[in-house]
């Protein structure tokens, strides 16, 4: 196993600026976030909870004195270090599959050495026998297959669909989805379990019960039950911390939000959770920002069920001020997107007429309990809330620090350009992420029939589709959602569209000025913009890391998006890009004609962006699938590229979070060294 690059998510400077009241709110919300750890572990793999317990049990047995454990058990210290690296990666990904890519990783230590490490220390065997840890986990912990997440099979597994044949009948799954839509059961906090007599829709809640939903001919007359009580113990604990946090909210809006979240976790009713998200959007510029719930559907093979996550961030006033300056002018920049005719005096049918400036904050992450720690997020994921109420953007600045010291994929840049690439990569990456969140995820207007006969457009004279020049033929029908219609494509197409928006707008001088980049500065506009297009090529190749040639499936939405963008640019930008591949020397490079970046690169991005946007706004899944599956197809040349990419893969990232404690009414912060030992200690002292 490759040694991880470990970063400390330092938060002390902004945490000290909070009042005692605010610190207590942050503390209890962080405890609520971390209490979701075991939900995530259960969502990852059957063995993940046991591996988690095993790692922490070993820590407790030696009190973090790993050298002592090595000596007592007779295991070489370099093998112990490999186990510590595995443990750090496991804890940072909250499971034994990478959060980014969904690929399994194995311990670097031999199984025999791990068994020796366990059995060679006094008192260890009795403890492990008591909870039967090692015997339960050693086989799945070390075996290579299944090597990725996905529908049940030889090479893949999922815990969202229980029973090996749960997903075998597409007709049954479609019928259950339609039934759920009809009775108002949202899918994000559910799993599906197949039984001989039918199916269970297993819903996360503190309340436990079961009730019949329907017996339907579409599922061969099998009974469909709603079974509440999934993750009962964890959600009950989370609710306890939410109740504590309510005593220290900053305003009535925040308290109402927590009450709604608590009720949703109690009952499993996601309509209450959606109400909490509307309330959350209205909690403007809070001194402590929080997100908690079943949020991102990346890991569901069908793209609709959400993985749990919880995060707590403390805003940085200076950084947030810059982002809000951008947000205040966002309506102006929307007019420069390909589907908006700025000269007509209206934004047209495919964009909201008024782009309300969202709450946009740059925060330092105090707690980020998730399989992926994103540099930025745009929430909520419910598009009706985005369009009717609004949304929030959050940049995690202490997570961004990791990107500032890395030049991922630099071996794919010509040696003569590497110094410039390293110098400019983070600057263009930061702006790209910011634009991705605010204008990528924040733009667009879904054409919808919300209830029978109630349209947000005139069905008698439908809008003209700019791709065909003819009236639109598809739209969202009553009860339909973006994820429900586009299913497995929804997350990757959404990310691709957002990435395209960020790259398309990055050459706008007014945007660059907002971030302090001028022609007189050390970072030149033209260098920054050129680096963005070079980065599109590098990231497109890097995306192949997360493609599984055995299953022919992509393991990460952003990776598939980056590859699809590169494939489009290779086909559509008049030779702007070229890939140099030497399989003998195992060298791979991407080249961009600097003189034609704006002339040919931007129009090409605009054409792809327009297609995805119109398909998304009009619920045209068929056309979208045809385009996107073609662009993300990995042919024989790309498989050769992938071999080189994999051989020079960047080390995995791991992050070390702080902990908070209440001491005589005051909240203390403890930060840990950015090492494998520090990560393990932080988790052991989190007591989850």
From TrEMBL:
In its keyword annotation, does this UniProt entry include Transport? no
Query: What's the record's note on cofactor binding?
Result: Binds 1 zinc ion per subunit.
Q: Give the top-level enzyme category.
A: hydrolase
Q: Which GO terms describe its molecular function?
A: aminopeptidase activity; dipeptidyl-peptidase activity; metal ion binding; metalloexopeptidase activity
Q: Where in the cell is it found?
A: Cytoplasm
Q: Which cofactor does it need?
A: Zn(2+)
Q: Name one GO cellular component term.
A: cytoplasm
The record's Gene Ontology biological-process terms are:
proteolysis
Q: Which residues form the active site?
A: 437
InterPro entries, per the entry: Dipeptidyl-peptase3, Peptidase_M49
Binding residue positions for Zn(2+): 436, 441, 495
| Keyword field | Aminopeptidase, Cytoplasm, Hydrolase, Metal-binding, Metalloprotease, Protease, Zinc
Which E.C. number(s) belong to this protein?
Answer: 3.4.14.4
Q: The organism sits in which domain of life?
A: Eukaryota
Instruction: Please give the chief subcellular localization of this protein.
Output: cytoplasm
Task: List the PANTHER family.
Answer: DIPEPTIDYL PEPTIDASE 3, DIPEPTIDYL PEPTIDASE III-RELATED
Which protein are we looking at? Dipeptidyl peptidase 3
């Amino acid at each position: 196993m490759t040694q991880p690059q470990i970063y400390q998510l330092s938060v002390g400077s902004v945490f000290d600026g909070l009042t005692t009241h605010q610190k207590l709110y942050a503390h209890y919300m962080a405890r609520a976030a971390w209490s979701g750890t075991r939900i995530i572990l259960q969502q990852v793999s059957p063995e993940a909870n046991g591996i988690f317990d095993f790692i922490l049990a070993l820590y407790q047995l030696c009190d973090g004195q790993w050298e002592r454990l090595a000596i007592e058990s007779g295991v070489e210290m370099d093998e112990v270090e490999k186990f510590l690296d595995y443990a750090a990666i496991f804890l940072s990904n909250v499971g034994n599959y990478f959060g980014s890519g969904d690929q399994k990783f194995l311990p670097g230590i031999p199984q025999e050495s791990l068994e020796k490490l366990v059995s060679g220390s006094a008192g260890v065997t009795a403890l492990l026998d008591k909870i039967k840890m090692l015997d339960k986990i050693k086989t799945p912990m070390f075996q290579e297959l299944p090597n990725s997440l996905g529908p049940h099979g030889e090479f893949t597994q999922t815990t969202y669909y229980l029973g090996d044949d749960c997903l075998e009948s597409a007709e049954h799954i479609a019928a259950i989805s339609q039934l759920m839509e009809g009775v108002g059961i949202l899918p994000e906090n559910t799993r599906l379990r197949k039984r001989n007599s039918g199916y269970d829709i297993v819903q996360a809640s503190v309340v436990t019960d079961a009730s019949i939903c329907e017996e339907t001919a579409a599922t061969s007359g099998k009974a469909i039950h709603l079974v509440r009580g999934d993750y009962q113990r964890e959600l009950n604990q989370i609710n306890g911390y939410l109740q504590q946090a309510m005593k220290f909210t900053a305003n009535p809006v925040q308290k109402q939000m927590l009450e709604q979240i608590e009720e949703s976790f109690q009952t499993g009713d996601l309509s209450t959770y959606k109400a909490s998200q509307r309330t959350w959007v209205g909690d403007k510029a809070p001194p402590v920002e929080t997100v908690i719930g079943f949020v991102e559907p990346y890991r569901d093979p069908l793209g609709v069920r959400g993985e749990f996550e919880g995060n707590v961030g403390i805003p940085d006033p200076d950084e947030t001020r810059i982002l809000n300056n951008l947000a205040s002018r966002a309506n102006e920049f929307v007019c420069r997107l390909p589907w908006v005719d700025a000269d007509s005096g209206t934004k047209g049918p495919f964009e909201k007429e008024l782009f309300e400036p969202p709450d946009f904050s740059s925060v330092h992450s105090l707690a980020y309990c998730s399989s992926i720690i994103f540099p930025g997020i745009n929430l909520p994921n419910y598009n009706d809330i985005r369009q009717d109420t609004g949304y929030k953007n959050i940049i995690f600045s202490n997570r961004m620090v990791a990107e500032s010291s890395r030049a991922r994929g630099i071996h794919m840049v010509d040696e003569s350009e590497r110094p410039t690439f390293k110098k400019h990569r983070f600057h263009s990456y930061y702006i790209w992420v910011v634009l991705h969140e605010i204008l990528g995820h924040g733009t667009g207007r879904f054409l919808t029939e919300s209830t029978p006969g109630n349209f947000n457009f005139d069905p008698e004279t439908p809008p003209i589709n700019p791709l065909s020049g003819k009236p639109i033929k598809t739209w969202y029908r009553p009860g339909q959602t973006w994820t429900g219609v586009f299913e497995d494509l929804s997350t990757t197409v959404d990310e691709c569209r957002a990435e395209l928006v960020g790259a398309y707008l990055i050459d706008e001088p007014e945007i660059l000025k907002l971030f302090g980049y001028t022609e007189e500065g050390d970072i030149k506009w033209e260098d920054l913009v050129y680096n963005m297009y070079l980065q599109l090529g590098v990231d497109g190749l890097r995306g192949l890391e997360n493609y599984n040639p055995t299953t022919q499936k992509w393991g990460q939405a952003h990776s598939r998006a980056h590859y699809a963008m590169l494939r489009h640019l290779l086909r559509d930008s008049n030779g702007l890009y070229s890939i140099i591949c030497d399989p003998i020397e195992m060298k791979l490079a991407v080249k961009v004609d600097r003189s034609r970046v704006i002339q040919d690169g931007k129009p090409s991005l605009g054409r792809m962006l327009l297609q995805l946007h119109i398909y998304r706004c009009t619920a045209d899944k068929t056309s979208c699938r045809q385009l996107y599956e073609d662009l993300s197809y990995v042919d024989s040349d790309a498989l050769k590229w992938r071999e080189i990419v994999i051989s020079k893969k960047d080390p995995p990232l791991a992050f070390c979070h702080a902990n908070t404690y209440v001491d005589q009414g005051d909240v203390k912060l403890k930060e840990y060294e950015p090492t494998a030992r520090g990560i393990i200690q932080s988790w052991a002292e989190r007591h989850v």
